[in-house]
Amino acid sequence: MTDHAVLSLEHIGLRIGGARILHDVSLEVAPGEMLGVIGPNGAGKTTLFNVISGVARPTEGRVRLDGADVTNTPIHRRAAAGLGRTFQTSSLFPALSVLENVRLAAQAHAGGAASVFRIPRRSDAATGRALECLAEVGLAERADADASGLAHGEKRKLEIAMLIAMDPKVILLDEPMAGVSSGDVPAITDVIRGLHRGGRTVLMVEHHMEVVLGLVDRVAVMHHGELLAVDTPEAVMANPTVQSAYLGEAV
Ligand SMILES: Nc1ncnc2c1ncn2[C@@H]1O[C@H](COP(=O)(O)OP(=O)(O)OP(=O)(O)O)[C@@H](O)[C@H]1O
């Protein structure tokens, strides 16, 4: 491992029963880097994110966050150490306002319990932080709307605002464009680009190839649980092994 990696995977392997889900995956991610993870269906992308975030334990190898071995660290402690994963839409509180949802995330990060029964007062520090996060994703003017009334693309922005409120060093985005209408793709792309500009490290699994190739510094290509290539988008697109992994389809 180099001194510079904010996230480091060392020879990660995962077997479930007799099945080899991940095999010898080694990867180093530099601070502030944006890395795309691509690969055909079933390649192991989501499982790799599960290993990084602590949802799954690898059967071989180590995960390091800022140099510290977090391989056996539970999910919530990894989150407190700066590893953030997008909230799914199902984790929004639909009856609360957009602002209140983000404020709960800010409050949870500050050490309070995220509960609908303990909503902090409007004037507190968490409110200010929540408003900043909403401004960062372009949702400030929707602060008072009910979360349930948001359009799908706006909900995605709200999920990202809630993530920012947790102040993560490393952000994992699992298919941020899934279910997003083509009209909303440019706006969500801009929000993700903004995360990166803020100096955060972002890893993104995404099937929408144009989005990935247009956003990331490097692309990691997975196939059958192994890392086939990690390189710039241009080099990956030109890589014959990668092309054959996609069964001859244009990448
Ligand atoms: N808990 C599990 N038990 C058994 N097999 C599993 C388990 N979790 C994942 N797998 C298998 O591991 C492989 C990788 O799955 P994973 O969801 O990580 O792939 P993926 O690249 O994210 O796929 P997709 O692009 O379709 O989301 C698949 O063949 C899947 O069926």
TrEMBL record:
Keywords: ATP-binding, Nucleotide-binding, Transport. Coiled coil: none annotated. Pfam families: ABC_tran, BCA_ABC_TP_C. InterPro entries: AAA+_ATPase, ABC_AA/LPS_Transport, ABC_transporter-like_ATP-bd, ABC_transporter-like_CS, BCA_ABC_TP_C, P-loop_NTPase. One of its GO terms (molecular function) is ATP binding. The keyword Transcription regulation does not apply. The keyword Transport applies. Residues 7-249 form the ABC transporter domain. SUPFAM superfamilies: P-loop containing nucleoside triphosphate hydrolases. It comes from the Bacteria. PANTHER family: ABC TRANSPORTER ATP-BINDING PROTEIN, CONSERVED COMPONENT OF ABC TRANSPORTER FOR NATURAL AMINO ACIDS-RELATED. This is Branched-chain amino acid transport system ATP-binding protein. The lineage of its organism: Bacteria, Bacillati, Actinomycetota, Actinomycetes, Micrococcales.
